[in-house]
Amino acid sequence: MKLTRRRFLGGAAVAALGGAGIYELVDQLGSSPVRPPSTVAAPPEQHLIDLRTTHSEGVEVVVPPLHSEIVTATVAEVDLRQAQQQLEHVLTELESSYDPATPSGLGITVAWGISYFARVHASAERHLPFDRRAQKPVLLPTRRFPSDPDATVLEQNDVAFLLRSDTLAHIQAAESALRGLDFLQVTSVRRGFAGGGFDGKQSLPKKLAMAAGVPGADLIPDTSELFLGFTSTQKAGLGPRLIANHETLGYVDLRGGYFHGGTHMHLSHISEDLEAWYLNFDFGERVLTAFAPGQKAKPNQQTVPQGPHDVHDAAQMRHTFERTGRFGHSASIQPTSRLQRDHVGPDGTVYPKGTAIPQRADFNTLDNPFFFSADPVRDKWTKDPAAGVHFVVFNPSGDDFERNRLAMDGQLPDGTKLDVKQRSRAQGFNSVLTTTHRQNFLVPPRRHRSFPLAEL
Amino acid sequence: MRASLVAAAAAAVLAVLFAPAASAGSRQCPQQWAEGWQALANKVQSPVYCPTWMPNPLDAKIGGQYEDIYSISRDRSYLVSFLEHGDLGSGDVHVNFRGYPGRLAVPKCPAPVGHGSTPCFSNPVAKLSANGIRATVYQVNQGADQWHILLAWHYRGTLYAVSEHVIPPYRFSTQVRHNLSLLLKSLVLVRPQR
């Protein structure tokens, strides 16, 4: 049976559990991770949240928040200084109700799109950070990548709110508060979940996919952190605390320093073809596709070490490709996503060669593609659930993100283009992933999170 | 959706009607299908397995309305395939029967990437026993069995396989595995006639 004959009639069997019902199951099906109470105030960085670690198959892994939600919006033509005060008041109120430093409370990250900064153009000209390595602004216009379909929507939201918590009610309270701000015109709400399973119980992605009845749900390993069957929050595979800040690696000219402590955020929605993944890739091929050809893994292993010594460089990637005709997802990204040499941060922190730079905050979803869309025709919105991921990643700059994403398509910063057909099976995950939406954002430091630059 | 439910309900009814006896010896290849399976056994000079149950709406009449592939190779290996294209919304039902007379090893298929080869049946996920047969359940399969769940087993020096496509109305592998277990229970041997 050829791939093209596959048909997708997803979700029809799930009418009884459509919409919010599925996500509410998270609280019923999942047990909240035990997290130590936070002992520190919220950090200057908005994007940082304290996540405890545990061990999975001998590897230290970060325990992600159970629930995540993104609310995107445009901003009406209003007095931005007044709006700034109103938004800050709402955010401060939420922080006083829910500990902002840990998912046992509520993590809030406010990120601003290029269309917003056009509203404060004069100040933006002076203060927006500039990537001196790339000789480009840190916040770049959103683009498609070679493996993206032409239909990928390049969004132009003014603002995105990333909400993270182990308790759905905290997120609902925040969404409700944000919806109460009449200058915000909500364009989408995106919901999802991750984790469970590290304690040996059935994970949330497995439970929720089964409850939603998405195709391929029954093929997901029971304890899998994410739909695709592998753990993705190995501590060594995520950037350490301050590394994604604009200032840490020295790539970025912060001009007057207004955005010191800020970062870049890329947001995309990616649909995942679970049936293709589990019915066409055997375990060995799933391992080499997710990681690298030659990657050792025990049968049905989910958590594969991704420490600095497991990292592939560009030469290895090219050699592997010449030998096998394919490259793995992790191996393709590591030449750009890991430090190529030791680095000492401005605060004296030593970041050894091989340290991961991006800080991912991605989470699985059954949105198709969003929980709510203000433009359902453009977004091809449907209430039928579908497996996917809301991909959220923080990098020091937009160019740094683009380097990683291009590498995923076999295009390296030195100009190397590996001769592989886009979206082919030789190209890591790409043949089972389809990006539907993308947007770049700038995340100001906490002190300037509300309508940055509007006060100047 | 309605068509899917109807198909699933009908399959359940047929499963009861054709519930296999405890022993394969008490059943025979259904009369209206037997001629084709006997001809196949004679052609490959090896026993073949005839099903006495098929997922709705298929029958297993070789040369009948649902036959999709009838292929016998020089090495006597065979592929007999039955397919219903539910173009009006009822979905596809596709079942393959294979035999490799005189061979026990899983055959090789072209690798999906590069120039090498890969096992045609891989990712064994379970064992299934019924009807005196102990079959291995393979989740990742190639060629005409791509996107199918497949059962493979040995009998007297020959490798046999039966597979079904995971696609609506049988959209979950668990539903397909259920169908395959019914198929396994329903199989009867047809021996070549000299």
Q: What does this protein structure show overall?
A:
The complex is a heterodimer of chains A (456) and B (194). By secondary structure, chain A is of the alpha+beta class. Chain A has 11 helices and 18 strands. In chain A, the strands form 5 sheets. In chain A, strands 7, 11, 14, 15, 17 and 18 form a 6-stranded mixed beta sheet that branches. The radius of gyration of chain A is 21 Å and the shape is globular. Chain A starts with 19 loop residues before the first helix and ends in a 13-residue tail after the last strand. With 194 residues, chain B is α+β, with helices and mostly antiparallel strands. Helices cover 23% and strands 35% of the residues of chain B. In chain B, the strands form 3 sheets. In chain B, strands 2-3-4-10-9-8-7 form a 7-stranded antiparallel beta sheet, with helices on one face. In chain B, strands 1-11 form a two-stranded antiparallel sheet. Chain B has a two-stranded antiparallel ribbon with strand order 5-6. In chain B, strand 8 and strand 9 form a beta hairpin. The radius of gyration of chain B is 16 Å and the shape is globular. Chain B starts with a helix and ends with a strand. The interface between A and B is medium-sized, with 28 and 27 residues.
Detail the topology: elements first, then pairings:
The complex is a heterodimer of chains A (456) and B (194).
Chain A: H1 20-29, E1 53-56, E2 59-62, E3 67-75, H2 80-97, E4 107-112, H3 114-117, H4 121-127, E5 130-131, E6 136-137, E7 153-154, E8 159-165, H5 168-179, E9 184-193, H6 204-212, E10 252-253, E11 263-272, H7 274-280, H8 283-290, H9 314-324, H10 329-337, E12 343-344, E13 350-351, E14 359-360, E15 363-365, E16 372-373, E17 388-395, H11 398-408, E18 433-443
Parallel strand pairs in A: 7-18
Antiparallel strand pairs in A: 1-2, 3-8, 3-9, 4-8, 5-6, 5-10, 9-16, 11-17, 11-18, 12-13, 14-17, 15-17
Chain B: H1 2-17, H2 31-44, E1 48-50, E2 67-72, E3 78-84, E4 93-100, E5 108-110, E6 117-119, E7 121-130, E8 133-141, E9 148-155, E10 158-165, H3 173-186, E11 188-190
Antiparallel strand pairs in B: 1-11, 2-3, 3-4, 4-10, 5-6, 7-8, 8-9, 9-10
